[in-house]
Design goal:
Blueprint: H1 2-8, H2 16-47, H3 54-64, H4 68-85, H5 87-96, H6 98-120, H7 126-152, H8 159-187, H9 191-221, H10 223-230, H11 232-258, H12 270-290, E1 293-295, E2 299-300, H13 301-304, H14 308-333
Antiparallel strand pairs: 1-2
Helix pairs in contact: 2-4, 2-7, 2-8, 2-12, 2-14, 4-5, 4-14, 6-7, 7-8, 8-9, 8-12, 9-10, 9-11, 11-12
Amino acid sequence: MITNLAGSLGLEITNSAFWMPLLMLALLFALMLGGAMFDGFDIGVGLLLRAAPANERAHMMVVLSPWRDANEFWLLLSIGLFVSAFPLAWGAILAHLFMPVMITLIGVMLRSVAFEFRIRAASEQRMRWMNYFWFGSILTAFGHGMLLANVVMGYQQDIPSVWFSVFIGICAVAAYALLGATWLIMRVQGTIQLLAVGWARHAIRWSAAGMVALSIALGLANPAIFYKWSSTTSLVLAAPVWFLMLTCFVGIDMLLGRALVPKYRTLSWMPFTLCLILFTCMLGGLSYSMFPFVILDNMTIWDAASASSSLRLVLAATIIAVPVMVIFNLMSYRTLFGRAP
C-alpha cells in the first residue's frame, strides 16, 4: 500500500519528501491523541463543577491541580507542529473553521486564566473564578465537537450541517464529562464519587450517540470513505474496531453499576481506561478515514507540507524538545491512576 502510494506521487519511499510528511502526521496524531485523553479528563472535571455541591467544588479543583501544567502541553505543541509542518493547510482550514476555532481558543484561555486567578483570589471571589473555569470548559468541549463535525462534513455550511455541528458539540461536552466523571470515580471517594457515577451514566448515552452519528455522517458525506470502510479488506479491519468500541461502552455501563459495591472498588480504574480506549478508536478511525488528505478530496499531506529542508529543521527541533517535554509529562502522570491522597 505504501509503495503504491509513493508511486502515485511519483516519489520513492526513501525520498524524504515522501516519508517526512508521514512522520510529521504520525507525531501530530500522537499529540492530538494525548491532548484528547489527558487534557480531556481535565476539561471533563471542569464541566462537572457546577453539577457538584458548592462545598465539594474546591476539592475537585485541588484534585485536578497536579496535572494542569502538563495538560496544556498537548494543545500548544499540536498547534505548533501543525502550523510549522503543514503551513499550506493552516490557512485553508482556518477559513472554514474560524468560528469553532475561536470558540475553542476562547475556552482554553478562559480556563487557564480562571484556574490561575482562583488560586490567587480572595476567598469570597474564588467561586466566581470557578464558574469561569466551568464556562471555559463548556466552550472548549463544544468547540472541539464543532471542529470534528465540520471536518467530517467536509466543511459544508448549509443548515443541516450547522445543526449537525451543534449536536456533535453537545455530544462532545458529554464525552468529556464522561471522561472526567470516570476519572473522579477512580481518584476520589465519598460524595463526589457517588455523584460521578450518576454523571457518567447520563453522559455515556450522549457520547455513544455522538460517536455513532459521526461514523454514519463520515460515510454518507464522502463516497470514497464509505468504500474504504465497506470493502471486504477494510471490513476485516473495521469489524474488530467496532466490536471493541461496543465492548467498551457496554463494559463502562456495567462497571458503573458496580462502582460503589465494595468488592468491585479495586476495578475503579477500568471505566476510565475503557474511555481512553474509546477516544483512541474514534480518533484512529477518523485519521484512517481521512488519510492521506488534510482536506478531503482537495489537499493531501504532501500538498500541505513544508519543503523537505524546513521539515528537517522542524524534525530536529521536535527530536530535542518533545522527549524532554514527554518525560516531564510522564513524571506528572505517574500518579494519574489510583486514589488521591
